[in-house]
Structure formats: structure tokens, C-alpha cells
Amino acid sequence: MAFFTFSLPLLSERFSQLVKAPFTNPNMLWIAVPLIITLVMVELYFGKYREEKMGWNTALTNALVLVFVSLNLFQFIFRVEGEMFFKIFFNQAFYIAFSILLLGILLFFIDFFHLIPEALAFTISAHLPINITAYTAIVIVYSNLPLDFATVLAWLSLIIILGVFFFFVKLMLHKDYR
User: Fold this and answer.
1) How far is CA 86 from the centre of its chain?
2) Is residue 75 situated within a structural domain?
3) Is residue 177 scored above 70 in pLDDT?
4) What's the domain range around 105?
5) Looking at residue 5, what is its pLDDT?
6) 11: in domain
7) In-domain check, residue 25
8) Exposure string (b/e) for 9-24, b if CB count within 10 Å is 16 or more?
9) Residue of higher predicted confidence among 90 and 171
């Protein structure tokens, strides 16, 4: 039951590791920085142009972000581990990358064929949860962080904190552009 091991100091440490990872592991900068820039710019865009709404095409392309990030993760895993199948197959990083790939493909089909109600699809496939999920997977794989309950809570905390932060940024932007 090591997955469910949890304490507030551990959560704080894991959250800190998620936030600081690009500075402590520069190998991930090439994939993490575009995600971060995209996240900030899209949030600012929707803050400035409040009448603009997310569409199925945006949800679809957000799902593709997960697919492309998973390919980068597989490349990293094979570069680090070499071509030893068993070493790769029994590696947590492989399962993280594979899960991100499956999630991306699943969301792609859900969004492409409009399989669930629009409001739910647009919430699940919004750029904030997609980019933070992709970013968290990058940090876990590149930094070899354990996937445990503290990491999952740190991921959820990051989504919530950034969501609240951008909510207030959008309020200020909306006020400035009236």
C-alpha cells in the first residue's frame, strides 16, 4: 500500500518538485517550456476575449498534446534505458508514457466523434488540465518521481491553484478591456 502513503510534508515536497523540476532538470525544458507558454498564452487570450468559447476543434487539438508528449516521453525512456525491453517494460516511466498515450487517444476519439456532452468534453479536454497532466507526466518521467498518492494530490493541487490564479487574472484582464 505504498501508493497511499501520505503526509502534508510529503505533499509539499512533491508539489515543490513539480514546480521546480524544469530548473533542476534542464533536459525537460524543451518539452515543458512550450506547454507552460501555451498554457499561459491561451489563458490570457480567453481572459482578454471572453466572448470566445472553446470548440470541439480545440478539445481535439488539446487531446493531441497528450499524444505528442507521450511520444517525447517514449523517446526519453528509450534514450535513457537503451533497447533492453525488460528494463523498459518494467519501468514506471514506460507505464506513465503509455497511460498518457492512451488518455490522449481516448480523448481524441471522444472529441472527434462528440461521444459525450459538450460541457463535459470541454471540461476534460480543456488546456489547463491537459497541459498540467502532460507537464506532470514529463516531470515524473524525466525526474524519476514516484507515482504515489502525494504526487497525484500535488498534480490536482497544481491544477486547482493555477485554475484559481488564472481565474483572477482573467477577472483583471476583463476589467481592463471593458
Assistant:
1) 27
2) yes
3) no
4) 32-176
5) 67
6) no
7) no
8) ebbeebbebbeebbee
9) 171
The Cα–Cα gap between 121 and 113 comes to 11
Give the model confidence (pLDDT) of 50-77 as tens digits: 889 999 999 999 999 999 999 999 999 9
State the pTM of this model. 0.91
Query: Per residue, what are the HEC states of the chain?
Result: CHHHCCCHHHHHHHHHHHHHHHHHCHHHHHHHHHHHHHHHHHHHHHHHCCCCCCCHHHHHHHHHHHHHHHHHHHHHHHHHHCCCHHHHHCCHHHHHHHHHHHHHHHHHHHHHCCCCCHHHHHHHCCHHHHHHHHHHHHHHHHHCCCCCHHHHHHHHHHHHHHHHHHHHHHHHHHHHCC
3 falls within a domain = no
Burial of 139 per CB tally in 10 Å (0-12, 13-18, 19+)? buried
Number of domains in the chain: 1
One-letter amino acid for residue 80 of the chain: V
**How confident is the model over 124-147, as pLDDT tens digits?**
999 999 999 999 999 999 999 999
What's the mean pLDDT in 101-112? 99
